[in-house]
Amino acid sequence: MSLIAAAPPLVRTTPPQDPAPLGTLQAGDAFWPVIDLAELRDTQRLDGTVNAARLQHAATEALAHTMAELIAWAAVQQLEGHATLADVPAPSINSTSVQVLRFRRAVYSLAHANLLERYADYDSTGRARKDDEDATRNLQAEQHRRDARWAIRDILGLSRTAVELI
Questions:
Q1: H-type helices in the chain, by residue range?
Q2: What letters, b where the CB count within 10 A reaches 16 and e where it falls short, cover 125-157?
């Protein structure tokens, strides 16, 4: 007597579908650049497990935080006659102002940090999380927050480190 059992392959044989199409975020003030959520997803290597609603929520908070950090600086720039962040004198890379690139980096990094922190509150595989996984996730979130702080400080023209004499 013999038995032949056929099971589905353990390796995925079809590529995953592209995540749902994403839109953009535009601050109420036209000074700030538009945030493209698809670019955020690609730049930060966020896969389809982060759905469009969560990504938009995290990006909205990141945009609000970044704008709040730069609001006084932006007011000065607007008084000097710069209608948008792209109009502020700065070098450009690939025809994009470095200031715009830094702004995007701040928003993208804060959004990614937010997602790392929020996705730590559940386990989709059903296995228990380990302390080292939590520590790794927290370290990654902190690195993204640091990148955002550096980008904001670069826009403001401040040094990336603050040193005090004790």
A1: 37-43, 52-79, 98-118, 131-156
A2: eeeeeeeeeeeeeeeebeebbebbebbbbbbee
Domain ranges of the chain: 24-121+129-156
Give this prediction's pTM: 0.79
- What's the start-to-end Cα distance of the chain, in Å? 83
| Residue 72 CB-half CA count within 13 A | 2
Which residues touch 130 (CB under 8 Å, ≥6 apart)?
Answer: none
Residue with tokens 């938009």: 56
Beta bridge partners of 117: none
Print pLDDT tens along the chain (166 aa). 666 766 665 555 555 565 566 889 998 889 999 999 999 999 998 877 888 899 999 999 999 999 999 999 999 999 999 999 999 999 999 999 999 999 999 999 999 999 998 775 555 555 555 666 777 888 899 999 999 999 999 999 998 886 777 7
Could you tell me how far CA 14 lies from the centroid of its own chain? Answer: 29
